[in-house]
Design a protein that fits this description.
By secondary structure, this protein is mostly helical. The chain has a domain of 120 residues: Regulator of G-protein Signalling 4, domain 2, CATH 1.10.167. The protein is 65% helix and 0% strand. The protein is built from nine helices and no strands. The protein is elongated, with a radius of gyration of 21 Å. The two termini are 17 Å apart. The N terminus is likely disordered.
């Protein structure tokens, strides 16, 4: 099952650790011996009931926003994981996995792209791939023509095509699923 904690931005210290450190500082200042310094975060690393309720409510609100914003769903850590779980149950998660890998490819250095292009092609684009995505001949040929140079946008048109397929086909089914409805409760 998917971890329903709010994902998101990156920092040197995980939000849980920041909160815990902040509580530890306040606890030392007030010299309390309680395992919960301010009621927001238990010193042993467990959320208090109030914090869990807030987090669930925040996730519920976030999940509801996905109904109107597919891009937001894909960019949210929990949203992406829940959508992938749904697609796995439908035996069709290869399109999302390709979209994620193509997104990573866009941010690679030229050297990294040269190494990664062939494996992405073999994993998702090749007609003999065990995880072949639903690309038409035009997009497949476009990638094959540029494989040797591995430009930054090598998979971009195919990624956009897959995005549209997921948006038109998978996303509406996801919004009707028990998994999504449970998140919104």
């Amino acid at each position: 099952m998917v971890n329903m904690s709010m994902g998101g931005g990156s920092s040197a210290i995980a939000p849980e650790e920041q909160s815990n450190r902040s509580c530890e500082k306040r606890s030392k200042k007030s010299n309390t011996s309680s395992s919960t310094c301010c009621g927001c975060f238990s010193m042993d690393g467990h959320y208090s009931e109030d914090e869990e309720d807030i987090e669930k409510r925040t996730l519920r609100e976030e999940a509801r926003s996905w109904a109107n914003n597919f891009e937001r769903l894909l960019r949210h850590n929990v949203g992406q994981k829940v959508f992938q779980e749904f697609l796995q149950a439908q035996f069709s998660d290869e399109n999302l996995r390709f979209w994620i890998e193509a997104e990573k490819y866009l941010n690679m250095t030229e050297e990294e792209r040269m190494k990664r292009a062939k494996s992405l092609y073999e994993d998702f684009v090749s007609s003999i791939s065990p995880c072949e995505v639903s690309l038409d001949a035009y997009h497949r040929n476009q990638i094959e023509k540029e494989m040797d140079t591995a430009p930054k946008n090598l998979f971009k048109n195919a990624q956009d095509y897959i995005y549209c397929l997921m948006y038109r086909d998978c996303f509406p089914r996801f919004l009707k699923s028990k998994l999504y409805k449970r998140l919104c409760r």
